[in-house]
Amino acid sequence: MIHFIRLDHILLSIPEGQTTNARAFYTDVMGLAEIPGNHPSGAIWFDIGDIQLHLREEIAGPLSLRHSAFEVANLDEARQELAEKGVPISYSTDIDGRQRFFIRDPFGNRIEFLQYDK
Fold first, then answer.
1. Domain boundaries, position 74
2. How many structural domains comprise the chain?
3. pLDDT of 86-108, one tens digit each?
């Protein structure tokens, strides 16, 4: 059984060319603190409560990269359990300090599983 710890972050898609407008909305209107850094695929990250909100430009298509990310206690065990159940697993860019992989549910929703490096 996969041991979930918490919801870690949510990635929302924004239209191409709208990063500046998104940054202004989420900092000036929503009052969120941006997390500095060179994040994967030009994403911008914000602290929101005890999780993070990630925003990234995306061309609309049938399978979005939007996703929720769940921290798990043992990433290898989660990967093995899902693979044994026939769930296809995919990978993305590396993020310092985190190991991760992705699945899609039967409805096309993308889900990230991650574990922080210790």
1. 4-116
2. 1
3. 999 999 887 889 999 999 987 78
